[in-house]
Amino acid sequence: MKESTGVLNDKLKDYYEDGNKNNQGYRYIMREAIMLYQGVQFTKILDIGCGVGSFLDAVSPFGFEQYGLEASEYGLKRCKEKGFNVQAFFLEENTRLPFKDNTFSLVVMNQVIEHVEKPVGQYSIKEIIRVLEPGGVAIIKSPSAYCKIWRTDPHHVYCWKPDELENEIKKHLDHLCKIEQNRGALEFWMFQNYDDKVIDKWHKNVKYPFLKELSVNFSAILDKVVFRVFKSNRLLATANFNFVKKIN
User: Fold this and answer.
1) Which of helix, strand or coil describes residue 196?
2) Three-class DSSP category at 66
3) Is CATH 1.10.10.10 the classification given to domain 3-185+237-245?
4) Residue 98 and residue 89: Cα distance in Å, rounded?
5) What is the DSSP track for 9-63?
6) Model confidence at 49, in pLDDT bands (50, 70, 90)?
7) I need a surface site. Which of 20, 90, 190, 237 has the fewest CB within 10 A?
8) How far is CA 20 from CA 16, 73, 207, in A?
9) How far is CA 45 from CA 65, 121, 209, 223, in A?
10) pLDDT for 155-198, tens place per residue?
11) In this model, does residue 3 exceed pLDDT 60?
């Protein structure tokens, strides 16, 4: 396994396989895609960096053709045990995705781009657009560089600022007809260095749900005010974007 990917087998085992994680929560990604889709017929899905198959698990009941790419041995093993069509693949600069042009209705890259160097991420965006069908949707979700607890995660190689990732996507405007940003504001527990205990308490298991909800709502309001007044994304915990490929 290549260290440059930042993908660790233990991380998948200890976090994404956790019984407290509700895989059905990933279905909101599918809802976002279907609402944005402008093609003829939504049929094929690609999950880049599919891990243990959490997203593929969540959308399996809908009957779409599903494909995945994964770098970790453990992730590949678990996906194959579940019967998913997943192959080993390392995101690298100038290494094309192993699919033909205009293949997929949806391409998902969820919590992956931060695990590779910036030039690899830049190339990956270009490749995602290539394999999208006209009218197809891409969804990239990633922690923001402004989020200290995720920026200092030793598994993360390069965290993008939201404006930086948006500008990178906009380099391909000739091929895109729509770009949307999904805002996720910084919460108080995110302003410290990476700490597994803090993440477990406030994110993974949410041990104080009332305080968590209060924090989320307050942060969202504060971000909305700051963005409206200063046009700033500095209070964002995420760099999350959806975009649609043009129909020529």
Assistant:
1) helix
2) strand
3) no
4) 8
5) HHHIIIIIT-TT--GGGGHHHHHHHHHH--SS---EEEEET-TTTHHHHHHGGG-
6) very high
7) 20
8) 9, 23, 12
9) 6, 20, 33, 33
10) 999 999 999 999 999 999 999 999 999 999 999 999 999 999 99
11) no
pTM given for the model = 0.91
What is residue 20's predicted lDDT score, i.e. its pLDDT?
40
* Res 7: pLDDT: 47
Query: Encoding tokens for residue 216?
Result: 């989320």
**Amino acid identity for residue 103 in this structure:** T
- Give residue 4's pLDDT: 43
Report whether pLDDT(136) > 70: yes
Helix or strand or coil: residue 105?
strand
Reference 191, options 234, 245, 155; nearest CA is 234
The residues spanned by each domain of the chain are 3-185+237-245
Q: Please state, in angstroms and rounded to a whole number, the distance separating the CA atoms of residues 50 and 201.
A: 25
Token couple for 218:
């307050």
Tell me if 161 sits within 8 A of 136, measured CB to CB: no
Using DSSP bridges, classify how beta strands 104-110 and 132-141 pair: parallel, antiparallel or unpaired.
parallel
Is 215's pLDDT higher than 50? Answer: yes
**């956790």: which residue's tokens?**
18
**134: pLDDT strictly greater than 80:** yes
Q: Specify the pairing of strand 176-182 against strand 132-141.
A: unpaired
